[in-house]
Design goal:
With about 300 residues, this protein is an alpha/beta fold. The chain has ten helices and 18 strands. The model has no long low-confidence stretch (mean pLDDT about 95).
Length: about 300
């Protein structure tokens, strides 16, 4: 069965704690892996969660704060030691390449695989990558420096063949791809067999939106409207709303407000401040606005 999952590697904020690790996620869509942000200890978490390094070909960096990118040098080096030879694409603001080039020149001169940087404009909502499985769009966020969220939109799957019907009409195998794409079948006698009799519709494509780091920002609502799963930062509780405003972060209540306004199906919050040893207050605040809010945790895997 084809999957669309989000693996939470780290969901803490900038100050390290023993409770949570720096931000990183891996999206698994149809067995292709896409990393979002790469804080410290990301590669260790990949080991713990048994995520295959070899299937990771794209890394998306939201912004140039260390808790979202300090894990890149170690991960890049490890991929080389594992014998990687295929291209690795790093999508992020142009400063991502400025940061990594000296490190690559110092520590990774004999890297056995190429790295390509795809510079994105954090202030633009646009398509930044697509393949046969997914289209990835940038989401302009509101933070202390240019920051982008990411929208992963699954591409429509082909219809499912009803084997009993194709066998009944003795449809040649060479015609099955066109039938999966929606064409009718014309029998040797000239009879038209409607496609709907030969196929079942594929499941509706899913969408996942990642929004961290950001202050409360209603301009993202039309972009993330109706997504199946939204990850929105909730660094602070409402009692620390002044601090959230000062640092361009969100409270749990504000994250829930965005989810409610955007009519998303499910909300998961994370990027917790180190000041909170317990997270029940954050969940309670979010649940009051968006019931069923999920608290992110390291090692968690969510099906989109």
């Amino acid at each position: 069965m084809e999957c669309f999952e989000v693996n939470i590697l780290g969901c803490g904020s900038a100050l390290p704690t023993t409770r949570h690790l720096a931000t990183s996620q891996v999206v698994n869509l149809r067995d292709k892996l896409y990393m979002i942000d790469c804080g410290e200890a990301t590669q260790v978490q990949m080991r713990r969660m048994r995520i295959k390094f070899s299937r990771l070909n794209h890394i998306f960096i939201s912004h140039m704060h260390g808790d979202h990118c300090f894990g890149l040098p170690g991960l890049i080096s490890t991929l080389g030691m594992l014998g990687r030879n295929g291209e690795l694409v790093i999508h992020g603001p142009k400063e991502t390449e400025t940061y990594l080039r000296p490190i690559l020149n110092t520590f990774c001169r004999e890297l056995p695989y190429p790295i390509r940087f795809n510079h994105i404009a954090p202030d633009q909502h646009e398509l930044i990558w697509e393949d046969r499985s997914v289209s990835v769009y940038s989401i302009p966020l509101k933070h202390r420096l240019p920051t982008s969220g990411f929208l992963f939109a699954e591409k429509a799957k082909e219809a499912h063949i009803i084997k009993e019907m194709t066998d009944f009409y003795q449809i040649p195998v060479r015609l099955l791809p066109s039938i999966k794409r929606g064409e009718d079948y014309i029998t040797p006698e000239g009879e038209r067999i409607p496609n709907g009799r030969l196929t079942r519709p594929a499941s509706t494509p899913k969408k996942y939106a990642y929004c961290s780091d950001t202050a409360y920002y209603e301009k993202i609502v039309p972009i993330i409207e109706g997504v199946d799963l939204l990850y929105h930062e909730a660094t602070f509780a409402s009692e620390d709303a002044a601090r959230a405003k000062e640092t361009f972060h969100s409270t749990a209540r504000q994250a829930a407000e965005i989810a409610r306004k955007a009519n998303v199906k499910r909300l998961v919050i994370g990027h917790y401040s180190a000041r909170y040893e317990e997270l029940h207050t954050l969940k309670k605040e979010a649940d009051e606005i968006f019931p069923g809010t999920i608290l992110a945790d390291e090692g968690m895997t969510l099906t989109v």
